[in-house]
């Protein structure tokens, strides 16, 4: 009986395999062919109107030009800002490095103008080193005068004389004398020889007298009243 059952099972297995093979053959013969994937349709090409295209290009060029100009202006502003910061730093450094001396800039200028012979001041005095000593360089239109920053003495005078062009005027003499005294009210001016020099005698209301060389404009002699009303003489050696 077992043998019979095995034969029946084998027969069923063979039948099943034959049936499956037949179905597979049928499907392979009669099944519709698989369609090849369709190629994508070419994209439609859009053609712009030449006028519109030219306008777009023109606006693009204008935008690029404006952008370049803005970048250039920004770079220039950055350069100016950097230069200003550098100048400010240099000014602060110079101010911090400049020591204080007994003679101030204003005093040095007054001393130089009193001995400049009517020359025109070109700029404010600058502190320099002259032969290793601190001095103020006071520039005029006809030269320079160097004033010792410690004592106020004139250590060098390169201002050219006005002798070739004639004597100075009374107004110039008054200006030189007033500058020498640092102010005052002039009551009388006359021209005379003082200590062998052709000079203007400039008298002030407080009794002071200043003699100014009529050709060079320099103070050659002075009688100055001090705060105690005591008279003392100053001579230009």
From TrEMBL:
Coiled-coil residues: 60-87
Alphabetically ordered keywords of this record: Coiled coil
Domain PepSY: 102-155, 167-220
Organism of provenance: Chloroflexus islandicus
Keyword Iron: no
Record-given protein name: Peptidase
């Amino acid at each position: 009986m077992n043998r019979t059952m095995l034969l029946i099972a084998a027969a069923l297995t063979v039948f099943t395999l034959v049936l499956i093979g037949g179905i597979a053959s049928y499907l392979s013969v009669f099944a519709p062919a698989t369609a090849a994937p369709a190629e994508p349709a070419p994209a439609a090409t859009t053609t712009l109107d030449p006028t519109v295209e030219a306008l777009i290009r023109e606006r693009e060029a204008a935008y690029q030009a404006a952008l370049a100009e803005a970048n250039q202006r920004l770079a220039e502003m950055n350069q100016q800002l950097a230069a200003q910061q550098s100048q400010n730093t240099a000014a602060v450094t110079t101010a911090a490095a400049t020591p204080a001396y007994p003679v101030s800039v204003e005093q040095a200028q007054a001393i130089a103008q009193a001995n400049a012979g009517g020359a025109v001041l070109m700029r404010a005095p600058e502190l320099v080193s002259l032969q290793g000593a601190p001095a103020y360089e006071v520039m005029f239109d006809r030269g320079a005068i160097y004033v010792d920053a410690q004592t106020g003495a004139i250590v060098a005078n390169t201002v050219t004389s006005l002798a070739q062009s004639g004597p100075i005027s009374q107004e110039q003499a008054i200006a030189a004398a007033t500058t020498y005294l640092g102010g005052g009210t002039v009551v009388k001016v006359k021209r005379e020889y003082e200590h062998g020099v052709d000079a203007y005698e400039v008298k002030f209301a407080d009794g002071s007298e200043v003699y100014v060389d009529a050709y060079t404009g320099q103070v050659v002699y002075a009688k100055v009243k001090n705060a105690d009303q005591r008279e003392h003489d100053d001579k230009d050696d």
